[in-house]
Amino acid sequence: MSIVPPQYKKPHDVTSSTDGSSEMAKLVDSPRSKRPKRLTRGLERVTKLFKKQEGKCYLCGAEMKLPIDFSERNVRDPLEATIDHVIPRSLGGSNKKENIKAAHAECNKRKRNTLPQST
């Protein structure tokens, strides 16, 4: 049996401590330097894109909301900024900055793995 560090456990794997709070809640509420790098890196990247695009979705042009965190949550606000690959990874796109843009969660979901429609 392998031992998984608490920051890599899924929410249903996280055990509660004696005071009733979960280890995941402690990680998300902890100072930024204590958060797992994968959560902090994603939030930093989408924040940079958000500022570069002046808070506007590259797909529809409307205002986006800046995400509070990138924790293990499954439900996102439809107007929240997410990272989108202009050319989807499944179609040969890369993770390079030229291929990454910020888009509403809803626009990103609707675009799926297609190329953006030219207007």
TrEMBL record:
<dbReference type="GO" id="GO:0004519">
    <property type="term" value="F:endonuclease activity"/>
</dbReference>
<keyword id="KW-0255">Endonuclease</keyword>
<dbReference type="InterPro" id="IPR002711">
    <property type="entry name" value="HNH"/>
</dbReference>
<keyword id="KW-0540">Nuclease</keyword>
<keyword id="KW-0378">Hydrolase</keyword>
<dbReference type="InterPro" id="IPR003615">
    <property type="entry name" value="HNH_nuc"/>
</dbReference>
<dbReference type="InterPro" id="IPR052892">
    <property type="entry name" value="NA-targeting_endonuclease"/>
</dbReference>
<feature type="compositionally biased region" description="Basic and acidic residues">
    <location>
        <begin position="95"/>
        <end position="108"/>
    </location>
</feature>
<feature type="region of interest" description="Disordered">
    <location>
        <begin position="1"/>
        <end position="39"/>
    </location>
</feature>
<feature type="region of interest" description="Disordered">
    <location>
        <begin position="90"/>
        <end position="119"/>
    </location>
</feature>
<dbReference type="Pfam" id="PF01844">
    <property type="entry name" value="HNH"/>
</dbReference>
<feature type="domain" description="HNH nuclease">
    <location>
        <begin position="46"/>
        <end position="109"/>
    </location>
</feature>
<dbReference type="GO" id="GO:0003676">
    <property type="term" value="F:nucleic acid binding"/>
</dbReference>
<dbReference type="GO" id="GO:0008270">
    <property type="term" value="F:zinc ion binding"/>
</dbReference>
<protein>
    <submittedName>
        <fullName>HNH endonuclease</fullName>
    </submittedName>
</protein>
